[in-house]
């Protein structure tokens, strides 16, 4: 396993744009254990600059730099077999807060993106924080 993602052609090594961050997220998804992959096929991955004020307020977060990712949907553990017609589950990665954390911590960016993504996908599975750490260790 490598923290070096496949980046889009032409990336110069500067702060990655949304496309480069998305490529890192796709590379991180490829490291997920095979048994999880069928269960995340419908999850939409998005990259936005920041969470909007409404999202921050709903989570009681004061500063947009404090939210690096968000899972929106109903965890698999809370679903019923007769559910249908809802919006697809979504994981949003917030580019600027991730870049700020990257600068502040010095952690490899690919590893940080992977960490945020796996944490948010863990919410999709209804995992506890300990479960998410175990999942991350498996990948």
UniProtKB/TrEMBL annotation:
This is Neutral zinc metallopeptidase. InterPro entries: Zincin_1 (IPR010428), Zincin_1_sf (IPR038555). The lineage of its organism: Bacteria, Pseudomonadati, Pseudomonadota, Alphaproteobacteria, Sphingomonadales. It holds the Pfam family Zincin_1. Gene3D superfamilies: 3.30.2010.20.
């Amino acid at each position: 396993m490598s923290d070096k993602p496949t980046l889009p052609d032409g990336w110069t090594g500067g702060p990655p744009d949304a496309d480069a961050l998305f490529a890192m997220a796709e590379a991180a998804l490829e490291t997920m254990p095979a048994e999880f992959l069928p269960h995340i096929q419908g999850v939409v991955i998005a990259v936005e600059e920041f969470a909007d004020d409404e999202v921050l307020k709903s989570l009681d977060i004061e500063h947009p730099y404090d939210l690096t990712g968000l899972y929106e949907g109903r965890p698999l553990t809370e679903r019923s077999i007769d559910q249908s017609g809802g919006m697809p589950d979504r994981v949003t990665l917030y580019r600027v807060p991730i870049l700020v954390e990257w600068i502040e911590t010095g952690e490899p960016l690919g590893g940080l993106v992977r960490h945020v993504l796996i944490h948010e996908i863990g919410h999709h599975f209804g995992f506890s924080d300990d479960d998410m750490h175990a999942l991350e260790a498996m990948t």
